[in-house]
Amino acid sequence: MIAIHGLSKSFGKKVVLDGLDLTVPKGKNTVVIGGSGTGKSVLIKCAVGLLRPDAGEILIDGQDIIRMDERELVRVRRRFGMLFQGAALFDSMDVGENVAFVLRRLKMYPERQIREVVEEKLSMVGLRDIQRLMPAELSGGMKKRVGLARAIASEPDILLYDEPTTGLDPIMADVINDLIVSLRETIGVTSITITHDMASAYKIADHIAMLYKGKIIEVGTPEEIRTTSNPVVAQFVQGRAHGPITEESEEFVRFVSR
User: Fold this and answer.
1) Rounded Cα–Cα distance for residues 78 and 256 (Å)
2) 64: Cβ–Cβ under 8 A, 6 or more apart, which residues?
3) Is 128 left (phi over 0), alpha (psi -120 to 50) or beta?
4) pLDDT over threshold 50, residue 16
């Protein structure tokens, strides 16, 4: 469904994506892992057309969104849903209004049907009878689930998850993981998840891709990534303090300290 070829993006002299290639199969969850600041968020912002890359192709069902004008991009974005890292709920709106936001903005249904859709999507994420609560009254896990209900309200073909378990305790993180797996199985959505939480990655992924120095350096099943012979990938997924990633950082620190 999504094919990314030669994607490059720089901010000033800082090269973030450097000829990146990635294929996201239809109906599967591709998880992109990598350290903080490696460009994972930049990648999905380019994928949904929020950032314009400097070069490359992003093909959605064969159509290159990079060459689309704003009107065409708006049409393509309607196929996407996104769970933001901090849920990004509107503080001034109650839960029901948050979930209904896209439906009302796009005028997808009459008001009565919108209320029914909101109730249905909240039920899908394990929340009932909370439409009138305000975001400030919710726990972190509830906010994530409301954000997920909003992401699926318009029944998108593609879901983007930005660090879906960040800031959650292990039990609630696993609840979110179960929801992501359930959505893939029940509605067949294609998804890209970015995370550095390897427990989450192993559970929800069909394929895992490692982003390092602006490129995808390895793609494999969870088991293939777990048992990789690539020393960079192995250090990251095993969470080891010593290895090629930190050795390069230490060498850079020594260089600039001279």
Assistant:
1) 46
2) 57, 58
3) beta
4) yes
> How far is it, in rounded angstroms, from Cα 182 to Cα 230?
31
DSSP one-letter code for 91: T
DSSP labels, 184-234 = HHHH--EEEEEES-HHHHHHH-SEEEEEETTEEEEEE-HHHHHT---HHHH
Q: How far apart are CA 220 and CA 199, in angstroms?
A: 16
pLDDT in tens, 97-148: 999 998 998 888 898 899 999 999 999 888 988 999 999 999 988 999 999 9
Q: Quick one: tokens of 80?
A: 């996407």
| Burial annotation 80-89 (CB, 10 A radius, 16+ → b, else e) | bbbbbbebeb
What is the total residue count of the chain?
258
Residue type at 203 in one-letter notation? K
What is the spatial distance between Cα 86 and Cα 146, in angstroms, rounded to a whole number? Answer: 11
- Number of Cβ atoms within 10 Å of the Cβ of 46: 25
Taking the CA atoms of 41, 43, 44 and 50 in sequence, report the sign of the dihedral they define.
positive
Sheet-wide strand order for 80-83: 80-83, 158-162, 190-195, 29-33, 207-212, 215-220
Query: CATH 3.40.50.300 in the chain, residues?
Result: 1-79+158-169+185-258
Contact 134, 146 (CB under 8 A): no
Task: Please tell me the CATH code under which domain 1-79+158-169+185-258 is placed.
Answer: 3.40.50.300
